Description:
By secondary structure, the protein is an alpha/beta fold. It folds into two domains: 4-171 and 215-241, NAD(P)-binding Rossmann-like Domain (Rossmann fold); 172-213 and 243-317, Rossmann fold. The protein has helices spanning 14-25, 42-46, 58-67, 81-86, 88-109, 142-161, 187-197, 216-228, 249-257, 271-279, 287-293, 301-317, and strands at 4-7, 30-34, 50-52, 72-75, 112-114, 117-118, 129-131, 164-166, 168-170, 172-174, 201-203, 211-215, 240-241, 245-247, 265-267, 283-284. α2 links the parallel β2 (30-34) and β3 (50-52). Serine is lined by residues 80-81, 118-120, 143, 170, 172, 183-185.
Amino acid sequence: xxxxxxxxxxxxxxxxxxxxxxxxxxxxxxxxxxxxxxxxxxxxxxxxxxxxxxxxxxxxxxxxxxxxxxxxxxxxxxxxxxxxxxxxxxxxxxxxxxxxxxxxxxxxxxxxxxxxxxxxxxxxxxxxxxxxxxxxxxxxxxxxxxxxxxxxxxxxxxxxxxxxxxxxxxxxxxxxxxxxxxxxxxxxxxxxxxxxxxxxxxxxxxxxxxxxxxxxxxxxxxxxxxxxxxxxxxxxxxxxxxxxxxxxxxxxxxxxxxxxxxxxxxxxxxxxxxxxxxxxxxxxxxxxxxxxxxxxxxxxxxxxxxxxxxxxxxxxxx
Length: 318
Ligand code: SER
């Protein structure tokens, strides 16, 4: 039986990943790690053990690993791209110094570790259409620099010490549960909130800007199925491209209008977000993930839009 620690359990991904892991492995086997000021509440607090776990505090992580006999860590602590650009030192401290702590503990205790990478690990010089698995990665954001470093450091601990490190490059993630904070792809979540509230949406990303996106249930499924994959079949370990859909603002707007015909959108471009979005791929090639561990997404833009509008509407009525 697995005993799992989720670091960053109250964040954008952790707040949905933790309950899903508890559903699969049993509540008592999944520890929700949180930082002060972002304590778990409700189901996250009641569904299993929780512990203060600051990724920058190696001693704290080591104590939790020993206390709960942890064999698997999902290291979800990170700042998103726009916030990171404004707080680069903190982004590095959490993303890389924190990862170092996790990997050192994983080496000592032979733990399995998942640490997400992102479409943000690519840059201007990367081929933008059907971006290959192994290609140029010269990002121009600190977020991207930390994600490339995450992939390399995770690979190095695997090659050098045999630590079972695994990761995917997440696209922009869309969910009706926990809103993201300070990402370049956040507009694709915010637009659904505006539609359900009956408000006009002001889009910060220019028309025609394609980015990979994914519905949260697919993202959770990707992380968990990669961690469960047969290691003998893995050629890569870290930074798997995964893809589900790629769209520009006008495409998601048109899809939402099929259900909310009065919905309106205008543009007020944010230069920082536009520059970051422009440097990222338009569409990833995820054939290695499909071949090595059977990745397949379940949601496309049409089915995600139906589900998002329905679930957000019922949450907002409560
Ligand atoms: N969603 C992230 C961001 O926009 C990208 O991985 O920062």
